[in-house]
Predict the 3D structure of the following.
Amino acid sequence: MGKSTLFNRLTESRQAIVDDESGVTRDRHYGQSDWSGQFFTVVDTGGYVVGSEDVFESAIREQVLITIEEADAIFFLLDVTTGITDLDDAIAAVLRKSKKPVFVVANKVDNNFLYSETAVFYALGLGDVFPISSMTGSGTGELLDAAMKVLKPEPIEPPESTIPKYAILGKPNVGKSSLINILSGTPRNIVTPIAGTTRDSIHVTYNQFGQEFMLIDTAGLRKKTKVRENLEFYSVMRSIRALEESDVVLLMIDAQEGLDSQDINIFHLAEKNKKGIVILVNKWDLIEKNNKTTSVFEEEIRTRLAPFSDIPIVFTSIPEKQRVYKAIDMAKRVYENRKQKISTSHLNDVMLEIIERTPPPSIKGKSIKIKYITQVTGVCPSFVFFCNLPQYIKEPYKRFIENQLREKFDLLGTPILLYFRQK
Ligand code: GDP
């Protein structure tokens, strides 16, 4: 129906987060996008191939319900060349009952004749119809303008915002609840929901190992589902919510399965959102080990996360209570790293010497000089390099600078931003 095309169009400037190498075609697609300066996450529901007589099988119904429950706004995509199908009718009936904003999107409107055909979709009783062509991109601007009006700005920070906020993310069954359970010895207070937002997140403050921190859980549809696709979809929606509200993501992977494409999707989403990251390799007790096992695992994970591989990796076992303290300690360190402010004089002392020794390669006979560096305010450590010809500083040199910064300062687990500006 063109959902993937629309998805790619919405996220193209940000590069769609899909793992091309895995060869898995049914991967859930989600990515970051922005329009008129507002950032949002796009989730492609994946959809179903209708095979049975009952066009609105429970699996689809469930998926629509999850979407209504978890999304801030819904794009209901219809195909102008086929008109309203029985399945569209059934989905519309559920959407009409929802309180979430629904945008009726008529796709494949590639010419003027088809434009007049879109009027039939008013019969769905869901309001305005937005004609688009996800192939050419026409109409998507109007759709996004309308959608941005209903998307709420970022939630107001809860009063405890100085307490580090962690989201424990990972695939179903990896051990997230088990970790939360052993941390739950002394939950101090539960803040829910955040006033003034539609997000029903639960923020639980813990005081464990002498540290105060908040774990973010997202309430919502608790119903069990037997459909694997829906389970995944639901866990993706919840992960995104928790991720957006956190400072540091604890990405839990299963030691027996290794890092897979779903884990990498979460990793990239955390990186794009400039969150701190700690990787927990859980169920470490189930792995047969020799003295090289840890380093082999680490090496493999770092290779797959390149170029952003300056990430702490902690090997945990929940039943054996192995390195749970270390995991929380790492999260705190990453939190501090992400918030740190490096003094301008220290930054210049260290970096200017390195730059002098290895200056940016000159281009067209012009030498490029970096004169001064300063850290500016941002969601993660952000550095401005003032230079005479910023446009001539290329990717490899930027990577070199990033590596040097990571070597000289403790930036473990945090994304950083580099800007090159004319003085
Ligand atoms: P969630 O879906 O990510 O919340 O996973 P759960 O916490 O429900 O854990 C799934 C299963 O894995 C449960 O049976 C846990 O007891 C088990 N489990 C969790 N962590 C570990 C671990 O470190 N080692 C072993 N052997 N089992 C674990």
Notes: Residues 170, 172-178, 282-283, 285-286, 317-319 surround guanosine-5'-diphosphate (CB under 6 Å). The chain is about 35% helix and 20% strand. The radius of gyration is 24 Å. The mean pLDDT is 83.
